[in-house]
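Practice problem: predict the structure.
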Amino acid sequence: MYEEICYQNNYVKEVVCRLDFASPINALKNTMPKAIYDVVKKYYPIAEPQDIIGTELQINPINGPAVNQVVTKQWGFLSRNRANKCTIESDNIIFSIEDYNVFEELRGAVLDILNVVMETFPENQGKRLGLRYINNLPLKDHDDWIDDKFFRALSSHKDDKTTKLMTVLEYAILDKDLSVRLQYGYYNPDYPAIMKREDFIIDIDSYSTGIIYREDIEQFINDMHCEDQKCFETMITEELRKNMNAG
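Answer:
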């Protein structure tokens, strides 16, 4: 059912896909293998690596403890319009997509890049994989876009003194080894000032923790998208679907 839904317009503010490694890949602290670089550049052609400065505590039995400065690389890659970004560090890979079109486009880039990283470092697995959709709905004059069971409980507490009005719901999808964290409500970008805009956020994060093997990533990504979309569809009404022009 949900796989067949495709909207011509959307209110997606950002999509985030993140893989955390079970242990740091030390080689990525200072070098970027050519095999990974070539695949990432197909999707994110603008390379903007940055130096990340940290500290490291070393214990010397003669001279005692010493704090040393450590410089590692953050490998940042941007799309041509600079709206989408892939960031690779020794601990994780993060995709941040602000110019979102369709899931298949995102999935293709994510799978190609994660696969080449896992193939290059086969001894490493993931410990957490997540897919998060942040939707920003302009609800002024459109309070019929959100299903009453989600909307009325919040809106009844909203008045001219409200600074933020959000709630959180978490649940497990046991048969898919997933968890879902839903945050929704009136997010105030000017917080702690009194809320002036009526932007309604639907923030859905599906994720899996535990050992993430390369051969399981595609199924996890598909299942996470399905759960994210299922949650979103539960919250919205036919009025919003018409607005987004469902195909």
